[in-house]
Write a structure and sequence with these properties.
The protein is mostly beta strands. It contains three helices and 14 strands. Strands 8-9-1-5-10 form a five-stranded antiparallel beta sheet, with no helix packed on it. Strands 2, 3, 4, 6 and 7 form a five-stranded antiparallel beta sheet that branches. The C terminus is likely disordered. This is Nephrocystin 4.
Length: about 260
Amino acid sequence: MNDWHRIFTQNVLVPPHPQRARQPWKESTAFQCVLKWLDGPVIRQGVLEVLSEVECHLRVSFFDVTYRHFFGRTWKTTVKPTKRPPSRIVFNEPLYFHTSLNHPHIVAVVEVVAEGKKRDGSLQTLSCGFGILRIFSNQPDSPISASQDKRLRLYHGTPRALLHPLLQDPAEQNRHMTLIENCSLQYTLKPHPALEPAFHLLPENLLVSGLQQIPGLLPAHGESGMWPTGRWCPGDPGAAPACGRAQWSGLRAEAAGRCTGA
């Protein structure tokens, strides 16, 4: 029973806001986002002086700006060591998701988190700032399609600040938001149609890494969890994407059970 409860709690998805869920249904769009590197002294010198063995990771969550509502499940990168003085922290981690909530107020919030040991040996985790990653453009039914690198600006505080009623959209221009100077996160975001054959294996609004174990998906090759392109595996039928075995960047989807003879 304890194992069942642990697995269940680790895989719970917070649903979108009820008002958002009542809107007309749209086809789900797949995305690939690569979090490349963190530039600048985002971890303050005071933290480095108080804590030892300081490491850093990123957390990504979905947020509905209209209803001030976090949903889905927070995804975390691997933990990376920090250096003194603070320098570039390289992640190069791809994450994948699909969503039918095609609206400019649906965003991904990226939080920078530092963790280290206090003098008594206990572990302390601190939020060092966050950024608002816009998934969809302001034009309806138009996801961001450019694949070139982008720079995400970071702000002081924690993502919980977005729940404050004074933070009206666009939050980036709100006077209560304080920019962290000379700090940014380099990333790419683009539609990823090669993920579509695995839609029935991945719940909507679930952020996953290519290195995560997903039931029904073959593990990725290599340490990055990302393939250069998504394509059909050699020898697989090129008929409906629900049939056969599909390979996509970071994961290979085995869509067995959708058709006979797969």
